[in-house]
Amino acid sequence: MSLNLYVGNLPYKTNSDDLKDAFSEYGEVIRAAVIMDRETGRSRGYGFVEMETGGKEAIEAMDGFDMDGRSLKVNEARPRQPRAH
Questions:
Q1: Any idea which UniProt keywords this protein has (predicted)?
Q2: Could you confirm whether domain 3-76 is CATH 3.30.70.330?
Q3: pTM of the model
Q4: Which of 11, 68, 17, 12 minimizes the C-alpha distance to 37?
Q5: CA nearest to 54, candidates 18, 28, 75
Q6: Which residue from 13, 45, 46, 19 is spatially nearest to 32, judged by alpha carbons?
Q7: pLDDT tens digits, 57-84
Q8: What are the tens digits of pLDDT across the range 9-38?
Q9: How many CB atoms lie within 10 A of CB 36?
Q10: Residue 81, CA distances (Å) to 43, 48, 50, 73, 84 in order
Q11: What are the strands, taking DSSP E only, across the chain?
């Protein structure tokens, strides 16, 4: 079963490929995405990584990891809550 990870406090120049490369060291990455602001096209400073294998190891290794001077926040992503209208 795959594990979906939340990655916060990303350096703003980090792209989805950088994220995939960083996490592929710990297991098989299915997909990685840095969330972009629709208005500005800039990174919002967080993203998600879906891992087929090695998810728990990646959390342990990457939570608090210094990436370009920023301490990453990595944990298991919570399922998306429906938005209230």
A1: RNA-binding
A2: yes
A3: 0.91
A4: 12
A5: 28
A6: 19
A7: 999 999 999 999 999 999 999 887 777 7
A8: 999 999 999 999 999 999 999 999 999 999
A9: 14
A10: 22, 16, 18, 20, 9
A11: 3-8, 29-36, 43-51, 66-67, 70-71, 73-76
